[in-house]
Structures are given as structure tokens and as C-alpha cells.
Amino acid sequence: MKIVWSLFDSGNSSYKRAIDKYFDNIENYSIGIDKLNKNSNFINLDLSNFKEIFGDRSLFETLDELPKPDIILASPPCESFSVASAMKGGNKFYVWEDGNMTPSTANRILSKNDTPFKSDVAKATLTRINGELCAYNTIRIINRYQPETWVIENPQSSKIWYYLEHNYNFVGIANVAHYAVYDKSFPKKPTTFMSNKFLSLGKMSSGSKADIVIGSRGQGRKQIRDYNERSNIPLNLVKDILEQVI
């Protein structure tokens, strides 16, 4: 029996649903919080918790009570690492360059002509802080519990990979998958599953298009406004990953 910890699997629970559907030899623990408060089939734990600096060790005290994971699957929120974010030009994050903390050039720096609303700036700041804490705690959890396999999911274009490498020297193998290969009700959505293992994942040929395109209007286009639905992963893709690493 393999033990899987599914971090941030508290929205539509793609990891849990795939494991429940396809695997009898996996004991899964989905961990996180549901932003929309629609689900409760997970361990409710804030993975952006920073209160350890105030002596609150509830994050690791809770995790220490669980069976040690053989596999960690993680889908930290991508909003703060995406240029399509709450503030025009994307949320800036910071890296150490020549001994100084400076805005990362991986994201476009706001010019003097960019004038986002103050509410957008505030939202972007909170989103960035939450995203960085989630990313930081993800690698802390991996380093603490040393699973045989770890997999971190984020869009291929996400700056989380740059952030983890340049801030924490945390790198892995970038395994890219296209969602539409596994389920035609999904867009193409090039996604990286960074791991300590090589994964042979399905990709569409260059120039090919998915049946579903995320956008505003037009034939074949689909609007996804629900936060949980946006975080969906094709169950067959989760199945493919787990079959390869078990």
C-alpha cells in the first residue's frame, strides 16, 4: 500500500477522485483549504501558514501525525506566478541578485504608464504573499518528509519554477503534459509536472489545437469562472502519473 499526500487537493480534488477511481493500492490524504467552501473531503490545513515564526507549529504537528508519504503530489496556487493575474503586468515577485532583493525580471516590471487601481495592488500583494508561502511550504514539506517521489504541478508558463530555483535552489525534471490529450473536454493547457522522476506524458503535436479553447466568445470557446473548476486536472493524467511512479 502506497501513501500519497495530495497537497492543495481541496477544490475539486482531482488527485483524490483519480485515486478513488483507479487505485486500490493507494491510501490518499488530501490536504489544504477550499477557497469556495464547497467541499470537506480533505484535511483542512492552511498550507500558506507562516506562524511558525511566532511559535505556532500546527502545520508540521498536524502533518507529523499522518503516515509518512511515499508520494507527494502538489498543486500550489499559480495566480501569483502568472502574468494573467490580479494586477496589470502580473504579480511581481522578488529574487536575490548580487546580494540585493530586486523585482524578478522574469515578470514584466510595471512601467510609469501602468496605473492599476489601489484595490488591484492590494489584491496582487496578498495573492503574491500567499503564493510564495504556499510554494515555500511545499518544498519544506518535501524536504522534511523525503518521499520516494514528489510531483509539483503548475502551468508551463508559470514563474514558480524560476522562483523555486533562484530563491531556494530547488529544481527537478520538467515533465510537460497537454490536458486535451487526456480529456477532450479540457483545453490544451500546457502544464509542467516538475518531479524528481522522469515522466513520459502526453503532448499534442506542434500546431495542433484542442476542441476546447478557454476564452471569451466564439465557437468552441469555454468560459471558466469557478476557481475550483479552473484547478481541475484530467483524472486520466493523474492516473498516468501514478502508474509510472508506483
From TrEMBL:
The keyword Kinase does not apply. InterPro entries: C5_DNA_meth_AS, C5_MeTfrase, SAM-dependent_MTases_sf. Keywords: Methyltransferase, Restriction system, S-adenosyl-L-methionine, Transferase. Transmembrane segments: none annotated. One of its GO terms (molecular function) is methyltransferase activity. GO terms for biological process: methylation. This is DNA cytosine methyltransferase.
